């Protein structure tokens, strides 16, 4: 089957959309990405671009066009010249060129002179995971981790002595459940009679963390 380049255009578009979503810039508005977008030049002639990307930030609208070429060899300077000629009569565009196979040296120089961003978008290859001196690079790291959280008090139940309760005139069975709900953890105290110690619920939480 002949390579029409359509699959590569969709790949570049999807990657561009994913990168935009990953940036998560709150001030970025009205993001619009289109395929095969036609824009009229100064002469009124429709010029078609593989991918058109428009967004608004700070009240200004920015427009980019991406030329996607799924060539089997590096892009030549003639291809960059053609892209420049295609966009020369359309002001206000950021120019981006995408290919799988890289660019010839002349194409890189020409693109730099005209502020064209050059992208190489392709599947990963074996040589991508080798350093310049031939040292293999890590592809992934697998590890297991057990997180031990510090102890904390998640519930506090009060058991009241029945005889003591009925000896108190200010409490009733209806008001008792609400006595401790409105108190802060540093306003409720526990007294250890056998050791002669006294600490708040807040203090108890800190003591548990030290053990």
Automatic annotation (TrEMBL):
Restriction endonuclease type IV Mrr domain mapped to chain residues: 44-119
Superkingdom to which the source organism belongs: Bacteria
Entries under Pfam families matching the protein: Mrr_cat
GO function terms (MF aspect): DNA binding; endonuclease activity
GO biological process, one term: DNA restriction-modification system
Protein name listed in UniProt: Restriction endonuclease type IV Mrr domain-containing protein
Phylogenetic lineage: Bacteria, Pseudomonadati, Pseudomonadota, Gammaproteobacteria, Enterobacterales
């Amino acid at each position: 089957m002949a390579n029409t380049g359509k699959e590569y255009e969709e790949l570049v578009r999807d990657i561009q959309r994913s990168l935009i979503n990953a940036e998560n810039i709150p001030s970025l508005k009205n993001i619009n990405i289109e395929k095969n977008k036609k824009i009229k030049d100064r002469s009124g002639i429709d010029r078609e671009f593989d991918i058109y990307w428009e967004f608004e930030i700070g009240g200004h609208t920015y427009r980019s066009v991406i030329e996607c070429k799924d060539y089997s060899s590096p892009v030549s300077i003639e291809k960059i010249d053609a892209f420049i000629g295609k966009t020369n009569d359309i002001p206000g565009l950021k120019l981006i060129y995408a290919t799988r196979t890289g660019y010839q040296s002349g194409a890189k120089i020409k693109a730099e002179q005209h502020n064209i961003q050059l992208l190489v978008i392709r599947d990963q290859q074996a040589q991508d995971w080798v350093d310049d001196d031939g040292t293999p690079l890590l592809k992934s790291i697998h590890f297991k981790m057990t997180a031990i959280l510090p102890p904390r008090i998640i519930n506090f139940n009060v058991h009241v002595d029945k005889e003591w309760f009925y000896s108190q005139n200010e409490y009733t069975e209806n008001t008792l459940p609400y006595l401790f709900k409105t108190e802060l953890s540093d306003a409720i105290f526990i007294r250890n009679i056998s050791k002669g110690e006294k600490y708040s619920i807040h203090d108890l939480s800190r003591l548990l963390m030290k053990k």
